[in-house]
Amino acid sequence: MTTHVEKAQLFRSLHVAGGSPLLLANAWDAASARIVEAAGATAIATTSAGVAWSLGASDGDRLDRRRALDLIARVAAVVDVPVTADIEAGYADDADGVADTVRAVLEAGAVGANLEDAHHGGPTPLRPVQEQAARIGAARRAADESGVPLFINARVDTYLLSVGDPDTRFDETLARAAAYVEAGADGVFIPGLTDLPTIAAFVEKVAVPVNVLAGPGAPDVAALAERGVARISLGSSVAQAAYAVARKAALELLGSGTYTTLTDALDYGEINGLLANS
After folding, report:
1. pLDDT at 277 over 80
2. Helix 65-78 vs helix 95-107: crossing angle, to nearest 10
């Protein structure tokens, strides 16, 4: 049986730059996690937005920690591959609270965590660099004390939120990434960045694996791998696509009274079978 530490070590080893990046089709509940695993995924990542939506909350630090952690535990319980959890800003107001969240994430069975520097409802779009570094440092110490080498993925939201002057955004992002790595981050996630030359420049200058967000309009896996990207995530887009099917099916049913949207649905028995032994 694979131990928690062994899963964490395996997850770390999957971050390969230069040809074979870790590919994450983010899940939002136990069933989507099993479906992604059955498709051949080597790890499962949750999407905080998809998780929040599925639990009746909006994204952006609106979901309470207890419900978020319960979902992480449910996902970790139904898959055999390593699980990394998107925990937004740590579901806490301060660094000590982030440390408590990380301990609970490990208890839930995850071996990785995303921590973002967006400050929803704060005076500025992003937390001050030193404040975020302190939160990452607290997460690092909590994980190290547990004995499980949690992979901390520091998300820098400069590009996603279009923060600051476009002419200085690269340098701002690089400075934040360096501070977070120094604080204990194992990887850097830069959602919102799809320009290949800029991605390649980040990979060259950042000392840890670089994660990008992909989807329609973004470069394909081969192009990103060629630039040295070590981790590619789909984020909330899989959940968004699933909800789009739900709306389209409802509109068709209520409009024309037909059901063609459901033609390509997964077989009931297949989904049921994936969760039969959970």
Report:
1. no
2. 30
